[in-house]
Amino acid sequence: MSKFDSVFRPLPRLGLLAVATFVAAAAFATWQLPAVAAEDAVIIPPPSIDEKSSAATEKAVFAGGCFWGVQGVFQHVKGVTNAVSGYSGGDKETAHYEMVGSSRTGHAETVEVTYDPSKVTYGQLLQVYFSVAHNPTQLNYQGPDQGTQYRSTIFVVNDQQRNIAQSYIAELDKAKLFSGPIVTTLEPLEAFYPAEDYHQDFLTLNPTYPYIVYNDLPKVANLKHIFPDLYREAPVLVSEVKS
Question: What average pLDDT does range 192-218 have in this prediction?
Answer without folding.
Answer: 97
